[in-house]
Specification:
Length: 146
Amino acid sequence: MHRTTLRIFAALAPFLLLTACVGSQPTTRVAANRITGNWVGPNGEKFTFGADRTFTAKGLDSKNLAAVTCPGKSSKGGWAFYAAVGKNTEISDETAKSGSWIGLSFDGAAENCQFDLAVVDGGKTLCATDDADFSCGLDVRFTREP
C-alpha cells in the first residue's frame, strides 16, 4: 500500500470502529420481576409490563419509532423473554423466568408494530431495537418510571 493510503486508513479507522458500535451495547440477563412495572422513554413513550406477561403501551409513534409503524394511542399485547432452542435459534418463551431480550407481540390494530427490547445498563434500561445485532438499534431507551 502507498503511504497516502495507509495514512487515510489510519485516520478513518477510529471513525469506522465507532460507527460500527453505534446502537450496540452489552445486554444484561434479569429476572421477570425486574421488568414488571412502568417504563418511560425520552419522548413520552410508555410501557407498563405485568407479571402475567401482558403489557400496555402508549406514545410509540415517536420519531425514532416511526420506522416500525407503532401507534401513539394506547395499545396492548404480550411480552416474553427470548430463550435458546438450538445453537443459533431463539424464540420468545412465555415461561422463561429470565432473559436479556424481550419479545413484544402487539394485539389488534397495533399488530404491525414490530420491535424488541434489549435489557442493558445492568437492567436499568430497556432499549428498543428492530435488529438483533444492535441492542439499541432504534435509539429509544426506556427507564423505570420514578
